[in-house]
Amino acid sequence: NVNRLASEGIRFINAHATAATSTPSRYSMLTGEYAWRKPGTDVAAGNAGMIIRPEQYTMADMFKSSGYATGAFGKWHLGLGDKTAQQDWNAPLSASLGDLGFDYSYIMAATADRVPCVFIENGQVANYDPSAPIEVSYIKNFPGEPTGKDNPELLYNLKPSHGHDMSIVNGISRIGYMKGGGKALWKDENIADSITAHAVDFIKQHKDEPFFMYFATNDVHVPRFPHNRFRGKNKMGLRGDAIAQFDWSVGQLLEALDKMGLTQNTLIILSSDNGPVVDDGYDDKAEELLNGHEPAGNLRGGKYSAFEGGTRVPVIVHWPKAINKPEVSDVLISQIDWLASLASLVDARIPKGSAPDSYNRLANLLGQDKTDRPWVIEQASNHTLSVRTKDWKFIEGSDGPKMIPWGPKIETGYLGIPQLYDMKQAGEKVNLATEHPEKVFELQQILRKVRDKSIQMK
Question: Which keywords appear in this protein's UniProt record, sorted alphabetically (predicted)?
């Protein structure tokens, strides 16, 4: 199904997320503002307060103001409620996606590896079980509640490889502590079915009006525990099966659009929030079963990293009405521009001061303009920033370990001195900073001016 989108649309091979981890990347895409401009946008705990504030302008606000029905489904990971650790999960949350422009939402409270392990529907726990009130803590466990660390015998579905050894839900230990939940607790093997079914229902309900849907799957994110019907479909174990499940979800949405005659005039953008990671906390044999496959291809680094593998992501744009010539494009694009680009598509006016880093590059997305974005700014997990142009990449000097310290076998890209790489050569192998001081200075100046907002992109 993903292959269908690629074969009928434009596949971008030089597309970039703004950050190498989930929370800041999603924040930037939905607000058009670089996450590093705002404190508190690092990888969010499951009980983080809502990181995008109600007064901020979002992509959903933009579509809603243009007459679109708006919905969000799946992995959220941008916080809920007004303040961190102050949520009452047994009542409607004080701040949720309805405050950010979404008419309807059916989301995971954070991620599958973080508590609380419940779905949130329109700002309150779905299938709430009053006999099992929910409590959540990221500081200490609740008396009598088992953990993966102390009770490994209860981990009948997946065991952790590093971290992820706190509260146990569905035979899998998580990050953070929770008690209660009862009938509201999800079963990991049913997550894809659940969010996909709700998304298909949303399409059916709004088939006669314009709609915007943010559909964020969990499949390849840990813990990878796909439904039994996808097990053993390939030789890469649970990670491969989870990718097959993701492809099925894409197919379900396409089938719904096809049946209702909506495919021709529906713009679909398929992408990821960051680069790949194999062992991200659970013993799912993903490393052992790669069989020579390299998830990041010939790119250096991966999720979390300042290197290209951290932020270069797949992007497919599919819109039969506007794209009638499938192609593979190496034009340089960034997710930061999607808000302004889509606003241009629907003739929406962005309020002054909103989406300050987003530019209209709609012609790029539709294959009508092959002009590269002049530069792309990227953020590693320790806030190291990089400037990427079509031909060069500058990584600012930063202190930190050479490898990700908590488990994944990924180079960080951190170095105490500036790095400069010729991107015409794959792999970011040779630091050319001393050979090209003028290029280092040029890219440093771009970064400085973007930081203080004194530069405008042409």
Answer: Hydrolase
